Amino acid sequence: MEPSPLELPADTVQRMAAALQCHPTDERVALQLDKEDKLRHFREYFYIPKMQDLPPIDLSLVNKDENAIYFLGNSLGLQPKMVKTYIEEELDKWAKMGGYGHDIGKRPWIVGDEIIVGLMKDIVGANEKEIALMNALTVNLHLLLLSFFKPTPKRYKILLEAKAFPSDHYAIESQLQLHGLNIEESMRIIKPREGEEILRIEDILEVIEKEGDSIAVILFSGLHFYTGQLFNMPAITKAGQAKGCFVGFDLAHAVGNVELHLHDWGVDFACWCSYKYLNSGAGGLAGAFVHEKHTHKIKPALVGWFGHDLSTRFQMDNKLQLTPGVSGFRISNPPILLVCSLHASLEIFKQATMKALRRKSILLTGYLEYLIKHYYSKDKADTKKPMVNIITPSRVEDRGCQLTLTFSVSKKNVFQELEKRGVVCDKREPNGIRVAPVPLYNSFHDVYRFINLLNSVLDSTQTKN
Q1: Does 75 appear as a known binding residue?
Q2: pTM, whole model, 2 decimals?
Q3: Carries keyword Disulfide bond (predicted)?
């Protein structure tokens, strides 16, 4: 019962329910969706937390031996089972041969990052020489901005979205201060229209058209951490470059979540972390992209030993032979234990493919949306019924797997009660709870269980009121 490419998730759910002769909210629909899911076996590649191991759990409300409902991959992805094996390989090598490990094995420490960088190509849609795996996201953002943000008296602004992730906001502020610029004048923030949560693409393009001559760099999230909005990166890139701006993206919440085509879109630069959808573990090795058109035009403002070409790096003559392109931005040797955890995850992505993952993700999140709307659409006849609003865009083209929910009752109480019942998600100020069913390891039955628990929590809230 493979959905057609143009079929909306709600239509797939209803069609499957009709074939099963049951209501779309019936558990049989979730079980059938899982049965027909060609990616379902990838769940076995990950450790799924058990109810009994979660700190906030109330064991009187759950079966302690059941898997938790883990909808927090947008903050920290689950651990691939091969991580431990790969790390132990390097620890064993270190124990047995010490410094010889720099040059020997399937991950020689000197080139550990370069060994796995090819596995990122299809995830971000770039050539291998346009990608570097290094540092942490904000460090990479600073390194890139130091090279791409060269303000002039006429072109001195950085354009970003409202409520950008704090790291991006702080990085931009500090870059402006570094150049002695007035933050209020140089930091151009686009806000949604009054009463709206989501930025309209036409408003973004209008600002670029009107003010582009004074904008040096456009830096947007690929996907907004709070609202879950997926920005139209190709349109923003095209509009910005037409006005002479450099265009870059923070892909923290987009990489491994949606399909990216950085090279084909002509994006100037980008950076991302790897511990969310890429499952590399807390503080995992981050990534950076610089388009090949800048290979011989843009150079790092700060250089280190690992930006020096490998063929002469160990001559140690202090005569810099800078590696062209983004590899020249590398500062230091790769942290091999972080390389190991990222390697384990990227191998899974290579098997699954982003195209197939995105196809499942659209249906998985669409199923979640369908059930929420079924149970919690506004009912004028029942004014006491708790309301759940989805602020994430409803068009599948405008979102990834995350839905951000707001409630007519206390967000804090809802969140705490979900935690007690083994739902792992998070809350974000001012009033959102983010839930992210990840196609690599979440199932349709996870979504069904989540909705049942949400119903239980909100029913008890209604009863108390």
Answers
A1: no
A2: 0.96
A3: no
